[in-house]
Every structure is written in structure tokens, then in C-alpha cells.
Amino acid sequence: MANILLVSFVALASVISLTLGQTVVVVNQPGPCFGCVLRNGIGYVVPENPECDTYLQCQFNQDGVAVGTLHRCGFGTYWDQDALTCNHIALVQCNDTRCLGKSDGYRFKVSGKCNEYYECEGETRQKRACNDGFSFNDTTQTCEADQNCIAPQPVGCTLIEDPNNVCVFGQMVDGIQITQNCAPGLGFNVSTCACSILAPSCGPVSVPCEPLVDIDFETAEAGEYDNYGAVIDTAAGTAYFNGSTAIRILRLSNVEFTGNLTIQVSYRVDYSTPIRRTNEEAVITNGDCGELATIEITRTGPTTNLRAATFDSTLTRTTTDLSVNTQDDWRDVEFFYNKAATKLFGTVNDNTVDKPFNQTIVRSQCAFQVGRGPGLDNFRGWIRYIIVTTCD
Q1: Residues with Cβ within 8 Å of residue 44, at least 6 apart in sequence
Q2: 93-102, 154-163, 322-331 — which is least confidently predicted?
Q3: Of 105, 154, 285, 368, which has the fewest CB atoms closer than 10 Å, so is most exposed?
Q4: 3-state secondary structure the chain
Q5: Are the beta carbons of 346 and 335 closer than 8 angstroms?
Q6: Residue 12 near residue 64, CB atoms below 8 Å
Q7: Cβ contact 269:299 at 8 Å
Q8: What whole-number distance in Å separates Cα of residue 177 and Cα of residue 155?
């Protein structure tokens, strides 16, 4: 199916690589995405006359036209084209056009909260903030009294205050706000960007865990994934993979999992082809763009395999493997990295195994894909759901 889709784009893109499980093309259609490298349908490029904190996310629309969506990085960060992520200003080489030719002390506002602004030093920008009760006036380049600009977050703070509940705070994860608890007895203080207020009434509370991805195949769920030939049966709530089909979840491209991570999937193997009883098949991986996968859920016969890759201080890659056996027809799998316990857990139905894992899972620029993975056979069988969360 991926090969068929690619044929319609040959006039708009030059094919660099076309192998099982991946397509890499360069857009040659005139426009803002010209020259952008798309790996399995998505790519990133620096726009013309850029500010250092802007970038274009490029992909083909339904008419086969390459379109770019302009994004701006968070306050205090620049777009890093090498890492394909927003990175701290000091870690990115970029000619900052707003500060070029400006004397030290020149101030301006681009984005952020009412109190935040940038100040030029050595023709590079530095993040600054007015005091509580003041907002930055871009015309006068000064902090002015503003009773509506209260309790500002510290510069660089990424946590979000809940005005109705001091016991919790919000955090943005892949564009979705996740609610988290403060420790018992403490409340969130926006001025310090931490749970630093004594609040005896704040005990262990239950907050909803919003998944990054929740696909159950009971509805069309347009936009949650790209389907490359899997047969969706909404009445049964299943997707069938015939060994040459796949699903890609582009929103999980280039995501760094620095805390807890849970991946849940329910699958059933189609044993109509006997050879597939012994070959290792990809159920879920994140290595579809020419890179090695850093997260894998696979199956070999009755065994479900779970893997996570990390780098140590010497940049040596290490892979942690878990294997769980079951004879059950449907296999409900949970891949769980518990940061506090520094362990990787694998559960299939009622069977759980674990291993020490005290590093951060290596970020992959690739999308998550269901049914395919580098170096693995394609999956043949049914899947009922895929859920990815990053909370406890």
C-alpha cells in the first residue's frame, strides 16, 4: 500500500529510499517545503528568513501537494534542525536576526506570557522577565505596572498553575496538557515553578491520566493515525494486518520520553501461515524512517518481546529486552517504564517480568508504526487497541 501511495508523489518528490517499512523522499515541488526530507510522510525544515525559534512541519495533503505548517518553539528555545526539536538557546547555532546589529540591552517581545521578553547581549537573545505585577511593553521596552499580569511563572518554567486546585499542576506533553500531583502536604507555587507551598490539605489525590494516543478501532478516529492498508472492522473493534500492511502514528514522531511511559496493545496472531509461528514479527515499533527502533513490541511464537534502547555517558547504545510467554489467544500487553523505580516492566495478560532500567529511552525521529519494524517480519493478525500514556 505504501508503494502505491508513493507513486502518486513521484512528480513532487525524489525518492531517496524505499524499503520495507520506510519511505524517505525529498520534496522538489516549488514552495516553502522545497528540499525538505520527509521520512514516512513527515519532515521538518527551517523557513525562509527565519527567526531562530520558528520551523516548518511539512507533509503531503490529500491532493498530493506538499504543505508546511509554521510552528514556534517555546520561550527561551530555538529550533535545532540537527536534533529536529526545540532546544535551549545556548545549545543551538543560529544567526538571530532580531539581535543582529543591536546594542546590548535592546529588548523585544516575541511570545510567552505578559511578563516575558528577550534582551540582546552580544547580538544574541537572552530570556528575561518582569517582576510580579508588571508586564513588558514592547513599544517602550520597559516593564510597566499591570495588575492583570500577576503571579508570573519564572523564565523557562514549563509548568502550569491550576487556579482552582493548589495541590496539582499542569504540564504540556506533545501538545496535550497533563495534570500531575504535588507531593502530599505541598501545593504548587507559580512564582517558584515548583510545589513549594505548605498545604496540609493536599494529600494523595486522583487526577485523570490523559493518553497521548488512544485508538480502539471502534470509530473512524480520523487524524489519530495514517492507515496503510489495515482492514478496520468498527463493529468488532479490530484492525487486521495481512503481513504487508501497517498503521503509522505521526504525532508520536520525534517525542522524547523523559519520565514514565506506558504502551498498551492487545493483539491476536493469525496462524494461517505456519512459518509465522517462528519468525519474529513487529507489533509496535518506532524505527520506520531508516533509524534503529528505540522501542519495540514484537512476537515470536507464544513469546511477546519488549525492548527499549538507551545511551550511556559514553554514547554507547544499550538495549534492555524482556520476554513474556503465554498460550492465550488474545494477548493484552503493557510496556511500562517506571522512572521512580528505575525499571522496565513487561506484562502479558497475568504474566509480568521486569529488569533494571535507569536511563532515558533514546528519542527517535521516526513515527510509531503498528505492524512493521526494521529487521522484523510484518505482523499478521488482529489488534484491538493501542494506548500510549506518560503519566503514573
Answers
A1: 36, 55, 56, 57, 58, 81, 84, 254
A2: 154-163
A3: 105
A4: CHHHHHHCCCCCEEEEEEECCEEEEEECCCCCCCCCEEECCEEEECCCCCCCCEEEEEEECCCCCEEEEEEECCCCEEEECCCCEEEEHHHCCCCCCCCCCCCCCCEECCCCCCCEEEEEECCEEEEEECCCCEEEECCCCEEEECCCCCCCCCCCCCEEECCCCCCEEEEEECCEEEEEECCCCEEEECCCCEEEEECCCCCCCCCCCCCCEEECCCCCCCCCCEEEECEEECCCCEEEEECCCEEEEHHHCCCCCCCCEEEEEEEEECCCCHHHHCCCEEEEECCCCCCCCCEEEEEECCEEEEEEEEECCCCCEEEEEEEEECCCCEEEEEEEEECCCCEEEEEECCEEEEEECCCCCCCCCCCEEECCCCCCECCEEEEEEEEEECCC
A5: yes
A6: yes
A7: yes
A8: 19
| C-beta of residue 145 within 8 angstroms of C-beta of residue 133 | yes
Q: What is the mean pLDDT of the chain?
A: 81
Q: Which amino acid is at 114?
A: C
Q: How confident is the model at residue 11 (pLDDT cuts 50, 70, 90)?
A: very low
Calculate mean pLDDT across residues 373-378: 90
At residue 270, what is the residue type? Answer: D
pLDDT at 6: 35
Could you give the CA distance from residue 147 to residue 151 in angstroms, rounded to a whole number?
10
What pLDDT band is residue 18 in, cutting at 50, 70 and 90? very low
Give the whole-angstrom CA distance, residue 158 versus residue 268: 41
Which of residues 64 and 290 earns the better pLDDT score? 64
Q: Taking the CB of residue 234, how many other CB atoms lie within 10 A of it?
A: 13
pTM of the full predicted structure?
0.55
Amino acid at 19: T
> Which one, of 73, 39, 79, lies nearest residue 59 by Cα?
39
> Computed from CA positions of residues 92, 93, 94, 96, in that sequence, does the dihedral angle turn out positive or negative?
positive
